Amino acid sequence: MLQLIIRILVKVLYNPKVYFEDDATGTRRIGGPAIIVSNHTSHLDGPILNSTLRGPQIRTLAAKDRFSQFGFGFFLRHTGCIPIDRQKADTSWIHESLNVLRHNGIVAIYPEGRHGTHRHQLPFHSGVSMLAVMARVPIVMVYVDGPHKAFHRTGMIIGRPFTIDVPASGLTSDYVDAQTRKLEEKMLNLMHKYIENL
């Protein structure tokens, strides 16, 4: 019921306009298992993604400390968010994400963290590449154009799915870092394509 209410509110307040990196085959329907990699400028990004994309429920990574906040914590728990501890080395989110993906689910990650700056990108954290290599599932990159204003259409562009290959030499920190930089480039290219479509 909460998901339905959120979907209706997003439609009424933001009515997202969706573009596709590949106009010929682009679709809002994301089949699991998959990892969604998105930029993050607002707490509204998660509800907008969940309400706009079609397919299995999206399990979004969210800062663990937010789960203890009154109101917001209730929302995170009841929309299936996965907690990640930003204050210390935390691997529990990887295990939970892998479990979701093994059951054909979808996990959404914001590898920059939330920074609230319009059309600006921070360096990605490498956890996104590590999860992608371990899970061996398609990645779908999404650029959401914030800030979001009520009764003004939000825009987004959905990239074509791709995978990260597992190297024959094994998973090394250099390989993970290199793949993370490639993801940064892909997101920048997606943002520029979105701007070109305006």
What features would you describe in this structure?
This protein has 198 residues and is of the alpha/beta class. Strands 1-7-6-2-5-3-4 form a 7-stranded mixed beta sheet, with helices on both faces. The model has no long low-confidence stretch (mean pLDDT 90). The chain has helices at 2-13, 45-52, 72-78, 92-102, 127-135, 173-197, and strands spanning 17-20, 34-38, 58-63, 82-84, 106-109, 139-145, 155-158.
Number of DSSP-assigned strands: 7
Strand content: 15-25%
Mean pLDDT: 90
Radius of gyration: 16 Å
Strand line-up in the sheet with most strands: 1-7-6-2-5-3-4
Tell me the count of domains.
1
What is the count of helical runs? Answer: 6
Largest sheet: 7 strands, mixed
The percentage helix is 25-40%
Unreliable stretches? none
* Series of secondary-structure elements, N-terminal to C-terminal: HEEHEHEHEHEEH
Shape: globular
Distance from N terminus to C terminus (CA atoms, Å) equals 34 Å
SSE class: alpha/beta
What is the gist of this entry?
By secondary structure, the chain is an alpha/beta fold.
Features:
198 residues; alpha/beta; 6 helices
Topology at a glance:
Elements: H1 2-13, E1 17-20, E2 34-38, H2 45-52, E3 58-63, H3 72-78, E4 82-84, H4 92-102, E5 106-109, H5 127-135, E6 139-145, E7 155-158, H6 173-197
Parallel strand pairs: 1-7, 2-5, 2-6, 3-4, 3-5
Antiparallel strand pairs: 6-7
Helix pairs in contact: 1-2, 4-5, 5-6
